[in-house]
Specification:
heterotrimer, A mainly alpha (295), B alpha/beta (253), C mainly alpha (325), A: 295 residues, mainly alpha, two-stranded antiparallel sheet, two-stranded antiparallel ribbon, 4 strands, B: 253 residues, alpha/beta, Rossmann fold, 6-stranded mixed β-sheet, 10 helices, 10 strands, 37% helix
Chain lengths: 295, 253, 325
């Protein structure tokens, strides 16, 4: 029983990472109709930003902010240079923009690879919570706990921001319908930028989580997570914030539990398998109620 | 008169809690032109979508020449001999008028799929027929032009030509003269009358009162998804309920 | 000349096999099916022939046929499952299916899991790939000139319109996917026999990106586009090899982005072709000595009958006189 609880805790922590990543992707998808393949790069650059801050003596929390700023800045650059100009053109459909983001991802990965000389660097665990505390007979790692709690805070903050602030509501309106937003006088451009800023910052944060957990970072840190992130977004519902969280948690817990109790192989296929099932049975995802466009 | 070609039998359609259509029935005989009118949102396009198989009605059925077509799905209904134009004008952008209309001719190629494009003579024959069609619809001079570059009135005509190219038995025109000049509308009216004279049945969704009066044998009036009235054009326009439905209250004007 | 061929054998074979993969992407894209399953299907084809020829000692030629067939069948199964989806959802679903296939292959005992299969008979000749590509080209051309080609195009550009014309869009999409699977399986099988080794990590995201890029460069209008693109870019990459893979990769990414900006429908895009045609007629008119006959009007499409060219000619309003029978 305690093994199960242990793994469940691990799963929740992993799920939190996925959820934070998925939030960013879902937000951008909802607001811009773009599935951003360069999201993993925001993550990688972000964690390197954090590492940079730490190595220059900044306190961990400040360094994390630096990392998030790195991610956010990179995201804005991508949005302004590539995404929005493409969206303005007539003959470009969503699939083409996706391919463009693949190109961006390649460029960004090559740059960070060059900048870090393809090195695998260690990510210090100093300043991060470590060790574990016993709770009801189970030993819960403090780092996973911190990750989970931080994620919760972030998600709640985002949800509140979207619901309560003017900018947040604008974002939701644009996500619902760009035309309606324009009719009401909202400039979708602002929403685009903000969506990307948030997604970049969140990706960087998730990257820091992963770096702290694995103690290693490299230019390819983000790669493996990209596809899982997409799976989480699809499962939870494209463009749905609570959906992204749900999808992330489902996948995180699912992966850890299936690896522990069934087999590693099932765990590997889980993300793809669930994604396919959701796409076939309920393409809008578990939480989204709005119909998905079919053509 | 023989049995009607199209029978719409007590069709209703609900969509997300709204009653888009409620108990609508109409018939169209061979060579008849039936107008479908009503204020915006009355359900005209929904009815067209039901007839063409784009939507499966919640209740009721549609039959073409005695054979049930409701619930068949769009391409099967098209194969049965139903063609349409779209309210928001859908053409294959980036391609020529000729290509657009030739694509409409798909049904006529009729080969089994495995015979592929082996028969050049069939291809040539169909192309010649499309030329004739373009000539009849006064589109020949635009044949090579990209539809995206053409004026609105011409684009509408291309869509009509595409519908005609399918050699259908029933055509549904969804606001074909929207945004046209008087001259263009008259040309379309002539075209519609000519197609009916050659035996095609027509359902014409229109807002242009003069056009409807001139061209239609009968008119069906819809309002809020319900059938207000069916009758000859003059009857219909004179009816109080119809006038109210169109003019609405003062604040809507 | 022959020396060059034998010296660059590997590069040529590789480029040609890549071209087969690219055509796999193409045939799906031209029907509007944004399928990312090709790499997974390639793995299916490669493993099918690898297992057949090593464990069951099936002759290589039959193995390759089986590989192609396996790709097609698998694609058909995928297609039936994801038939209703389109756009990004289809892309994700096909990608997931393709990836799942690779992951599952990497877990099975019969495929020797992650270690892969060694010692596949290297009885490969370039001729096979060339023949395969020629057959594919012939099939594509026949399709292109027929009502099926127009149907594919209509399904791609506007599925609702296609259906309203009587085109069975679902069947065409499925057909395109199956053809895509056949080609991908064929590419995988050829690859297995060319290298002699197969393992799951050969079929990675990088291969997907490569195939997709080339296909998008080539465009969906004409099958020659992706074929030429694949060969040209293959040569480009080979030449650029000296510069270092990182810069090459980055240049690749930039190329992709620039391409989407300039020609979102690929180089076969009509606007690009028209721009090209206008440019060349401009050049021709400058080169012609004064007083000679004006040039014939620039052909605007590649599948016209001669009548049409006449229609597009100088006497554009005299429709009656121009119409030939």
């Amino acid at each position: 029983m305690s093994y199960f609880a242990q793994q469940l805790v691990n799963g929740i922590a992993l799920g939190s990472v996925f959820a934070v990543l998925a939030l960013g992707v879902s937000l951008v998808w909802g607001v811009l109709d773009v599935l951003n393949f360069s999201h993993a790069q925001f993550m990688t650059w972000g964690v390197f930003g954090t590492a940079f801050g730490i190595s220059h003596g900044l306190p961990v929390v400040v360094a994390i902010v630096v990392g998030m700023l790195t991610g956010a800045t990179l995201a804005v650059i991508v949005e302004e240079v590539v995404i929005t100009p493409l969206k303005r053109r007539a003959h470009v459909d969503a699939s083409s923009i996706v391919v463009a983001t693949i190109g961006v991802a390649i460029v960004l990965e090559t740059v960070i690879k060059k900048l870090t000389h393809s090195e695998l660097r260690s990510f210090t665990s100093e300043g991060f919570p470590s060790g574990s505390i016993p709770v009801a007979g189970i030993s819960i790692g403090l780092l996973p706990l911190a990750i989970f709690l931080t994620s919760v805070v972030v998600m709640v903050a985002l949800a509140l921001w979207l619901a309560r602030t003017r900018l947040g509501r604008e974002l939701r309106t644009v996500a619902y319908s760009r035309e309606r937003a324009e009719i009401v006088g909202i400039n979708p451009r602002t929403s685009y930028v903000i969506a990307f800023v948030i997604s970049g910052a969140l990706a960087a944060l998730a990257g820091t989580f992963v770096g702290a957990e694995t103690a290693l970072i490299s230019y390819s840190s983000g790669d493996g997570l990209l596809l899982i992130t997409f799976a989480a977004v699809v499962i939870g519902g494209m463009g749905s914030i609570p959906g992204a969280v749900l999808g992330g948690l489902v996948l995180g817990i699912g992966q850890v539990l299936t690896a522990a109790f069934i087999s590693q192989s099932v765990s590997d296929v889980l993300a793809f398998g669930l994604m396919v099932i959701v796409l076939l049975v309920r393409p809008t995802g578990l939480l989204r109620r709005q119909a998905v466009s079919r053509a | 008169m023989s049995s009607p070609l199209l029978v719409v039998d007590h069709v209703s359609h609900h969509f997300q809690g709204l009653a888009a259509l409620t108990d609508v029935s109409l018939t169209v005989g061979g060579g008849e032109i039936v107008g479908l009118v009503g204020p915006n949102g009355a359900g005209k396009t929904t009815l067209v979508n039901v007839i063409t198989g784009n939507i499966r009605p919640s209740a009721g059925k549609v039959a073409l020449d005695g054979r049930r077509i409701s619930g068949l799905g769009m391409y099967r209904v098209a194969r049965a001999g139903v063609a349409r134009t779209f309210q928001n004008l859908r053409l294959l952008e980036g391609y020529s008028v000729f290509d657009n209309v030739l694509t409409g001719r798909h049904r006529a190629f009729g080969r089994p799929w495995w015979a592929l494009g082996i028969s050049r003579s069939v291809e040539r024959k169909q192309r010649r027929e499309v030329f004739s069609l373009l000539e009849e619809t006064n589109l020949l001079e635009y044949a090579a032009a990209d539809v995206a570059s053409l004026p609105y009135g011409v684009r509408r005509r291309v869509e009509v030509a595409r519908a005609l190219a399918a050699q259908p038995r029933l055509i549904l025109f969804d606001e074909p003269t929207a945004g046209m000049t008087r001259g263009e509308s008259t040309a379309v009216a002539r075209l519609i009358k000519a197609t009916a004279e050659s035996g095609l049945s027509v359902v014409l969704v229109e807002h242009d009162v003069a056009l409807v009066s001139e061209v239609c044998d009968r008119v069906v009036v819809l309002d809020w998804g319900k059938q207000l009235l069916t009758g000859a054009p003059t009857e219909v326009w004179a009816d109080e309920r119809v006038r109210t439905a169109y003019l609405g209250t003062a604040s809507e004007a | 000349m022959l020396e060059w061929f034998s010296a660059n054998q590997f590069f040529i074979d590789n480029t040609l096999i890549t071209t087969v993969l690219v055509m796999s992407f193409f045939v799906a894209l031209q029907a509007g099916v944004f399928s990312l399953a090709s790499v997974g299907l390639m793995a299916v084809g490669g493993y099918m022939t690898a297992v057949l020829t090593t464990t069951y000692h099936v002759p290589v030629v039959e193995g390759i046929f089986a590989g192609a067939l396996a790709g097609g069948v698998m694609a058909g199964i995928f297609g039936l499952a994801v038939a209703r989806l389109s756009g990004i959802y289809l892309a994700l679903a096909t990608f997931a299916l393709g990836q799942s296939a690779i992951v599952i292959i990497g877990e099975l005992k019969i495929t020797n899991a992650q270690q892969g299969i060694l010692g596949i008979p290297v009885l490969y000749t370039t001729a096979w790939t060339v023949v395969g590509l020629l057959v594919a080209a012939a099939v594509f051309e026949v399709i292109r000139r027929s009502s099926h080609g127009r149907a594919f195009r209509a399904v791609r550009v506007d599925e609702v319109v296609a259906k309203s014309i009587g085109i069975n869009a679902g069947a065409y999409r499925l057909g395109a996917l199956v053809l895509s699977g056949l080609l991908a399986g064929f590419a995988g099988a050829l690859n297995a026999h060319e290298i002699g080794v197969i393992s799951p990590d050969q079929y990675n995201f990088g291969v997907l990106v490569l195939g997709l890029t080339y296909a998008m460069v080539g465009g969906v209008e004409h099958w020659a586009g992706p074929m030429l693109a694949s060969v040209a870019l293959g040569i480009f990459r080979e030449q650029a090899r000296g510069v270092g893979t990182d810069i090459e990769d980055a240049a690749y990414g930039v190329l992709l982005v620039v391409l989407i900006f300039l020609a979102p429908r690929g180089l076969g895009d009509r606007r690009v072709v028209r721009g090209f045609a206008r440019l060349s007629s401009l050049v021709r008119s400058r080169l012609r000595p004064p007083g000679s006959r004006p040039p014939p009007p620039t052909p605007l499409a590649t599948d016209r009958s001669s009548n049409e060219r006449a229609i597009a000619g100088p006497s554009v309003g005299a429709s009656g006189a121009e119409r030939k029978t």
